Amino acid sequence: MKQNFPAEYKKTVCPLDCPDSCGILAKVVDNRVVSLKGDPDHGYTNGVICRKMRSYNERVYGKDRLLYPMVRTGAKGAGEFRRISMREAIALFAAKLKETKEQFGGEAILPFQYAGNMGVLNRNAGYGLYNKLGTSRIIETICSAAAGEGWSLHCSSIPGSPPEVAEVSSLIVAWGINVRVSNMHFWQYISKARKNGAQLVVIDPYRNETARSSDLHLKVLPGGDSGLALGVLKFLLEEEKIDRQMLVEQTTGFAELEAYLQKESWHQIYKVCGLEKEVIASFASLLKDNPATFIRIGIGLSRNSRGGMSVRAIVCLAAALGLFSGQTGQGVLLSSKAYTGDTDRLRFPELAEKETRLVNMAHLGHALTTLEPPVKLLSVYSSNPLTVAPDSGMVRNGLMREDLFTIVHEQVMTPTARYADLVIPATTFLENKDLYTGYGHFYLGCVDRVIEPVGEAVSNFDLYQLVARELGYIDAPFSQTVEQRLSEYVSTMEGLPENFEFDPDNPDGRWYQSSRQRVGQSAMEMFQVPFRFSAHVKQGISSIPCLSEGDEFDDKDLCSRFPLKLIIPPHADMLNSTFGERYSGNVGEVLIHPDDADKYTISDGEKVILQNFRGKTVRCAKVSSDTQPGLLVAEGLYWQSDDQSPGINVLTSQKTTDIGAGPTFHESRVAIRQLGEFQSFREVPE
Ligand SMILES: Nc1nc2c(c(=O)[nH]1)N[C@H]1C(S)=C(S)[C@@H](COP(=O)(O)OP(=O)(O)OC[C@H]3O[C@@H](n4cnc5c(=O)[nH]c(N)nc54)[C@H](O)[C@@H]3O)O[C@H]1N2
Ligand SMILES: Nc1nc2c(c(=O)[nH]1)N[C@H]1C(S)=C(S)[C@@H](COP(=O)(O)OP(=O)(O)OC[C@H]3O[C@@H](n4cnc5c(=O)[nH]c(N)nc54)[C@H](O)[C@@H]3O)O[C@H]1N2
Ligand code: SF4
Ligand SMILES: [Mo]
Question: In total, how many domains does the chain have?
């Protein structure tokens, strides 16, 4: 007889790498998640989640979910596997680690992980074992390295402003961030402010969804934001509209920047940002007329060879406008930095006997093909590098190597997992206990698992504890429970509010607001650090923000061969490459300006080849003046499908940003042509 199980709503947190880190209510019936909705108790996300996550339960139980461990039986990348038991999988994992270390040394092992799961415990779960084994180490640069470095050069560890402050601003600037797509809960504060008369300015090379709903869209040249920010500052100085008294009292080093701006020409500023002096002047006046301005800085604008400089110029402009002063409606937010904690309690660097080789994530292609001594074992978790890493043709060449053993711990059969020698099924956030903070707001939550693991899936934490024990390691980190590790970390955290209660055995699922949240107080006073216009920098880096040329975009040799610029921002229905399985076979669109469509005889809706010296890929052309002449925009990291084309990152470079060594995803030069007479992508000549 069929039993009627009662439905329960359980609190959880979206684990995806999204600034909103939403509070979620999962409806559970008989250990099955039947639906997901926003938790109305969450102070920032207020009961709303995006459409991607509303149907996440379909991903949990869908046909693409990995349910048991497998070993490869076909050629690399063919996706042919045979099921094995979890006991065999753990034994094989441990044996391969041991064998590789004994034969080639620990550094022949390369762990590669990122932020598929933002839970503090699971995100960092592999570090202990890899430190113990003395493996090569990944430098986690792939997302915000340049932006983070740009911020801290001038602002030190000052947190960003609470996004809620924008509700009472009279001017909100979305600078290099597609709020409606990648930070959608911030939109509610923008809407409230606009109901009271506030204006929204969007600064972006193309008319994205947010720009479409703005009062003013400034179509800056990609990579040219320092031109705009410094141009505004130069104009305000020329008009004597900077509060020098405030600068003397709260900041240091402004004189150096002012001297530079006096010398810099308007022509050069125009050349860098592509905006006329009159446009810059009217934006400057808008800023000056609205002391209650909130600048939301995105990470997108930092993904090019001048990305760090762009962030530096914007924060310096914000400081010169007094936006760190904490008056009503004033704010600057890049990353909230709401909580800090001792990550050594999660990563255990003390287990390493020596400092081992470092590999930048942006250089995975190099690491797997050219690095000496070679990587012999690649272990991937919480990431899909074949789709998300730059220069993915090189990554693929590496994954094809017969002498490379690849282990992928995954939830679904991603393009990377297809190349694995050993695949291990991973739990989703619904099957884990973990603690989540957010980088776009100031809330934290610790939540229990909502359901038991599906199939034979194991969490990152459990997997690494199992493999460590198989290797005979019984040191403290490897015998810890989830609860012990969480408690240890929480005991080191800063930003916890006074009412914070923590019972790791029974997490209360309450949302706590950080004490580092600053409202109505100057950042310099609250954190006791002056804003520095002139930063302490390494040799070869300018101490003040200044104008510079782009690398690939301004390279004459490449301009002649590959006349179009390409940027690759996120898609509304994917989270980086997560959810790519929902769009299998879909190559995605590329926006092309009508002038360029004419020039290269491209029609709306037709398939086109995008090509450069790194590789080629197919997209569907969308002819639109949303972009600017000379600029192609390809939203979304659609998965590679072998019969059609590799993904869009086949076109991007392993070159890194000016500071922070981040990738330059938004700075590729390409040529475009119709797929036309070619029956398939493979026939197109190199
Ligand atoms: N739906 C959805 N949401 C996401 C993600 C996703 O893939 N999909 N990804 C998540 C992750 S990991 C991150 S890091 C964040 C990233 O989110 P954001 O910080 O918003 O960064 P991007 O999305 O890369 O780019 C944002 C905007 O920057 C613009 N841009 C590119 N180059 C320049 C430039 O030189 N100057 C200026 N002014 N603008 C430029 C792009 O056109 C784009 O509209 O979003 C998160 N949220
Ligand atoms: N061209 C271009 N490339 C980009 C970007 C861009 O804007 N343009 N954005 C870049 C940015 S900002 C980022 S952050 C990176 C993101 O790169 P990644 O961190 O690789 O992000 P995802 O594509 O979301 O892939 C995460 C994978 O982890 C898996 N996963 C989720 N949770 C778990 C878990 O608990 N355990 C395990 N083992 N696996 C799990 C998911 O199924 C998913 O396949 O991509 C970068 N790549
Ligand atoms: S992806 Fe972002 S907006 Fe969507 S549920 Fe997760 S945190 Fe919220
Ligand atoms: Mo990211």
Answer: 4
